[in-house]
Design a protein that fits this description.
This protein is α/β, with parallel strands linked by helices. Helix content is 43%, strand content 13%. The protein is built from 15 helices and 14 strands. The protein has helices spanning 3-31, 55-67, 82-97, 113-120, 147-166, 196-210, 243-246, 269-281, 283-286, 300-310, 324-331, 338-348, 363-368, 374-381, 390-393, and strands at residues 46-49, 71-75, 102-105, 125-128, 134-136, 139-141, 173-178, 215-219, 223-224, 254-256, 264-267, 290-292, 296-298, 319-321. The protein has a seven-stranded parallel sheet with strand order 3-2-1-4-7-8-12, sandwiched between helices. A three-stranded mixed sheet has the order 9-11-13. Strands 5-6 form a two-stranded antiparallel sheet. α5 (147-166) packs parallel to α6. The longest helix is centred in the N-terminal third of the chain and has 29 residues, at 3-31. The chain is globular and about 60 Å long. The termini are far apart. The relative contact order is 0.14.
């Protein structure tokens, strides 16, 4: 089977699976009592969110708190960081509006069964995030080129979590956050080798299920809207005062690492957070199921069209692909470049395809939670107000 056929068939199956889940969700909503949910914090189920200082898991904490349907226990390792300060600011706000909904727990080592066992105590659900990196004393070792060192890193976390879950039978549902499903390995002819950490993480949900853990697996893209900006800050939307730290989208420049006509699935972490809440609210629909998410399915050319259409001043934009050869050079001196380089090499070599082939494929997801669009993101970033330079006007 050729690659394009394999991807097309997989995308059709993913879309059909999502429709079944969404239809079941609406049917279950109709069946449920109209009585309001319990409002006292002591009566609400408790959800533990691991790696809560991370960008994605912080968004999950924020969205879960906003529902007021759960008590949220935000787990993280290192206090005193900017990311921890962001959690502390959220706690202060939450205590004013909904006291007792959110608690913070630092010192949580994802490699420690004992620590995770205490962290999961009394919880009904867990968001389990695993990384292929080693982090010690605030220093991160990237294992993108090191499967021999990286695989044990991943499995130590998974095994520690597994033992902690076994020690806490109150935990009835776990949500994992994984990359898009692999649609070509072992199916299509001459498929490029999958990057090791993607392959490793794609196996984790099934591994845990085989050990008797009830897992809801959320497949979401590796590409986030905010890859265009530095957005890992504590309480601001950007870090630093320079234009680059605020946003990498500028006049005549929308950066990317794939070909301009390559269909990329984008995700906003707020959409991930909303769907995590829905999966926990309706475990009878999503327990042990796979759900594929994206906020948009857009090519580089489409990003440019949207940016120009939304700009208030007629500013022109251009998609600029970051050269793979330069990424390879930079990866020799910066470990942070390794992961995006491997993504770009794999996808550009047609090693895989995304879960959604076009915007229309997202219609069922949009029925439940209106998705965070690229148009809204541009407004949020202020791109719509970028004015053309004097030279461009001339």
């Amino acid at each position: 089977m050729n690659r394009d056929t394999a991807v097309k068939l997989a995308q059709q199956a993913i879309k059909a699976n999502n429709k079944r889940l969404v239809d079941a969700l609406f049917a279950r909503k109709a069946e449920r009592s109209q009585a309001p949910p319990a409002s006292a914090p002591s009566q609400l189920p408790t959800i533990a969110v691991t790696c809560a200082t991370g960008w994605e898991c912080y968004a999950i904490v924020e969205e879960l708190v906003a529902t007021k349907r759960f008590r949220v226990r935000a787990l993280y390792r290192t206090p005193g960081t900017q990311a921890a300060a962001r959690l502390e600011a959220l706690l202060k706000k939450t205590e004013t509006e909904s006291p007792g909904i959110l608690t913070l727990q630092s010192g949580v080592d994802m490699n420690s069964t004992e620590t995770l066992t205490r962290a999961f105590a009394g919880c009904t659900s867990v968001v389990l995030y695993n990384t292929a990196n080693t982090s010690q004393a605030g220093k991160i070792t990237n294992h993108g080129n090191d499967p021999v060192g990286g695989r044990p890193v991943v499995m130590r976390q998974v095994l520690a979590a597994l033992e902690a879950l076994r020690a806490n039978p109150s935990v009835r549902q776990v949500i994992t956050l994984i990359f898009p499903t692999d649609k070509v390995t072992g199916i299509a002819d001459d498929a490029p080798a999958i990057p090791w950490w993607i392959d490793q993480k794609l196996r984790l949900s099934d591994f845990l299920r085989a050990q008797g853990v009830n897992v809801t697996c959320i497949y979401r893209p590796a590409y986030y809207y905010a890859m265009h900006r530095v957005d890992y800050t504590a309480q601001a939307h950007f870090r630093g005062s320079g234009a680059l730290s605020r946003n990498m989208i500028t006049e005549n420049n929308i950066p990317g690492i794939t070909d301009p006509d390559f269909m990329v699935n984008w995700i906003d972490v707020r959409d991930v957070g909303k769907w995590v809440g829905t999966c926990f609210e309706y475990p009878e629909v999503f327990m042990n199921k796979d759900l594929s998410l994206a906020s948009a399915a857009l090519t580089g050319h489409q990003l440019v069209e949207i940016a120009e259409r939304c700009n208030r001043h007629g500013t022109k934009f251009r998609y600029r692909q970051f050269p793979l050869w330069l990424m390879k050079v930079l990866s020799r001196v910066s470990e942070e470049v390794v992961y995006p380089l491997r993504y770009a090499e794999w996808y550009n070599a047609k090693g895989n395809g995304y879960d959604f082939a076009c915007q229309d494929d997202l219609a069922d997801l949009n029925r439940v939670h209106p998705l965070w669009t690229f148009e809204r993101e541009l407004e949020f970033w202020g791109i719509n107000n970028i004015k053309p330079s004097a030279g461009a006007k001339a």
